[in-house]
Design brief:
Two copies of one chain form a homodimer. By secondary structure, chain A is α/β, with parallel strands linked by helices. Helix content of chain A is 40%, strand content 19%. Chain A has a seven-stranded mixed sheet. The model of chain A is unreliable at 1-7 (pLDDT under 50). The interface between A and B is large, with 63 and 62 residues.
DNA sequence: AACTGTGAAGTTTTTCACAGCC
DNA sequence: GGCTGTGAAAAACTTCACAGTT
């Protein structure tokens, strides 16, 4: 949840919605559409059309009055804004069940990411193949990340090791961490390191609040 | 993102933070602590202490002035509020790589959830074992969910099938869906069905906005 | 007629700051 | 002295509503 002075100072909450818009635009393209509007996007996403227009207006006028948005053009612009008009190499730490699933997931490519290396602490896993990559020992994290200029990492190790792994990654130059371990990471020493979390239980617990019996 | 008239009308954004607090309290307990304060929690989570106090105050006074919060007591109260002081049966749809990882994940138990059944459309996967459960055919979704009174489901099927699966689930009586497919689900017809999303790429794209070069 | 982009208005959320208690 | 719980103030965010364009 690190805040950050990027180019301007566009609210992070707006940045968080851009990938959602981008995903919806991908979908529209797949469906063969070429033009859309803030109303159509809003309907599909359950977001008001005004919000979509306001969000997009932070980055310039991407639409045409009376017509709407050219989907291919808007996708291109959003990819530029989010800097996913290139491919980011990602380091994956952890080759257990979860690491395997992440390593084999086909959904990163085409959306700006490419898993470039995998590490695990378990002697038995080192040398194994996950998603076409050879699992490397933890001791090689720092050198590999530095040599290959990797800035993005995913943590899929047990909670008790996640903080130590984080410190190794940050020391190696990682600037963005997606943490699958169910624990909050302390990166308060580095204000240029971004952390995001994935914990399915958090989402489930948020929904059970509303359920009956 | 369905909003909802639960007991009172406490902001959903507050509900969303409670599981995070609960997770941090679990951690403190594991570390052997018995008492904490809004300041300590805030420091660990990167949230202001005032916000934590305000959030908790919606549900009653759980703390003691001068002392702070009794961790075990606060955990218990939060579990009650979130209704995770019981175990919810969860249906898992999809037994591919992702479904396997979810099915084998040990982190649901102890936090209020228990995967009760798994379904897949692929003939070859039916009958296989995932996390100790036998994969059932899709045709059995509705009857199984009804008979066992299941209200919570996770979707781990390809994006193109996610909407159809959602409709089956909702017809069967499911009230909470955690969707791993990278697509927005339309449940606008049912205002008592809650949906949450997990898409790692969304988190990654949100961070690359802030990276340099 | 349909749609964007945007100031202004309205609403929600967060922070402040302090009385009251241990 | 340290902490909670909470009204009041401040800040952030969303929606309204409409001028301007196609």
């Amino acid at each position: 949840m690190a805040s950050n002075p990027a180019n301007n100072n566009i609210p992070d909450i707006v940045i968080g919605r851009l990938p959602v818009y981008l995903r919806a635009l991908n979908r529209l393209t797949q469906e063969g559409e070429e033009v859309t509007s803030s109303h159509e996007l809003g309907r599909r996403l359950g977001i008001s059309s005004a919000q979509i227009r306001k969000d997009l207006s932070h980055f310039g006028g991407f639409g045409k009055q009376g017509t709407g948005y050219q989907i291919a053009y808007l996708e291109e612009k959003l990819r530029q804004v989010l800097q996913v008009d290139r491919e980011w190499k990602v380091a994956l730490i952890g080759a257990g069940d979860l690491g395997n699933a992440i390593g084999n997931y086909r959904g990163f490519t085409d959306r700006g990411f490419h898993i470039a290396c995998i590490f695990d602490a378990d002697e038995e896993k080192i040398g194994a193949t996950v998603g076409g990559l050879t699992v490397q020992p933890m001791a090689e994290i720092e050198s590999t990340i530095r040599e290959r200029g990797i800035q993005v990492a995913m943590i899929a190790v047990p909670a008790e090791h996640a903080q130590a792994v984080t410190e190794t990654l940050v020391d190696a130059g990682i600037k963005a961490i997606l943490n699958y371990a169910p624990i909050n990471l302390d990166v308060s020493k580095r204000d240029d390191v971004h952390v995001q979390y994935i914990d399915p239980v958090l989402h489930l617990q948020r929904m059970t609040y509303y359920l009956k019996g």
